[in-house]
# Entry
Amino acid sequence: MSSDTGYDADPELPELYDHIPMYNSRGDVNFYLDLCREAGEVLELGCGTGRVLVAAAQAGCAITGLDNSPRMLARCRAKVDQLPSLERDRTALVHADMTNFQLARRFKLVIVPFRPIQHLTGTREQLSLLQCIHQHHLQPGGRLVFDVFNPNLALLAAPVNGEEIEDTPELTLPDGRRLRRSYRVLQKRYADQCTDCELIYYVDNRPIMQPLTMRYFFRFELEHLLARSGFEVIALYGGFDAEPFTNDSAEMIFTAVPQQ
Ligand SMILES: C[S@@+](CC[C@H](N)C(=O)[O-])C[C@H]1O[C@@H](n2cnc3c(N)ncnc32)[C@H](O)[C@@H]1O
# Structure
C-alpha cells in the first residue's frame, strides 16, 4: 500500500517534517497527551512520524499508531525503537489506510491529530473513516477527538498568483545542512472545497517538493458527517487551550461520542 498524500514523494520528507518549528510549537501535543493519559489506551490515526505518539508512549500510555505513508511510519518506527523497552512494548504501529482498516480491537480514545482528515477529499472516504471508527474501533463510552483548521475566508478568497511564500526561515539541521521552506498555492477548487498546494523544502538550496491537497470543512459539514456516522458532538474547541470556537478561531477541535 502506498500513500497518495504526498508524504512519500521524497525519502527526505519525513525527516524534514520533524524539523519544521511551526509543527513542533503547535501546542497540540499537551492537549492530546492529557486525553491519552486519561484514557490509558489510545488509537492514533495518521500518526505520521510520531510527534504525538512518542510523547504518549513516554507518558505511560498504550498507543497504537496507524498511517498509510510507509516513509512517515518508518521514521516513527525508528523513534519507537529508541524508547526504553517498557515504553516501546506498549506501542504498536500499523501500516494501513485509515478509511479502511480492521484492528480487531476497540479503544477508549481515538485521536486524529494535526489534520489528517483534511487529506480525505471525498465524502465517501470521510464517512468510511468515521464509520470504521464508530462501528469497529471504539469501546462503549469511548471518544473520538480530531482537529482541522477553521477556514480563513479572507485567505480563501484571495486570488491564486503562483507566488512562493516562505513559511520557515532558514535554520540549521543537526547535521549542519541548511533548511528553509516555502509553499505555493496552485489551484483553489472551490467547488470541491479543496486547495492544491506544493510545499517546497530547500535543503542547502536544493528544492524537494511535496504535493499537498487540503480539503477544508466548515463546522456544520463536520457535524453532519459525524451524525451520519452515528456520532454526537459533545465539545467543539477553537484552540488547544480548550477555548470556545468563535469567528476568529484558527482551529476546530471536535470531541464526539457514539449517539445513545
Ligand atoms: C500532517 S501529518 C500529521 C502527522 C501526526 N499526526 C502529527 O501530528 O504530526 C498527516 C498524516 O496523515 C497521514 N495520512 C493521510 N491520509 C491518510 C490515510 N488515508 N490513512 C492513513 N494515514 C493518512 C499522512 O501520511 C501523514 O503522516
Summary: The domain at 13-150+217-258 is CATH 3.40.50.150 (Rossmann fold). Residues 3, 5, 7, 46-48, 51-52, 67-69, 72, 97-99, 113-116, 119 surround S-adenosylmethionine (CB under 6 Å).
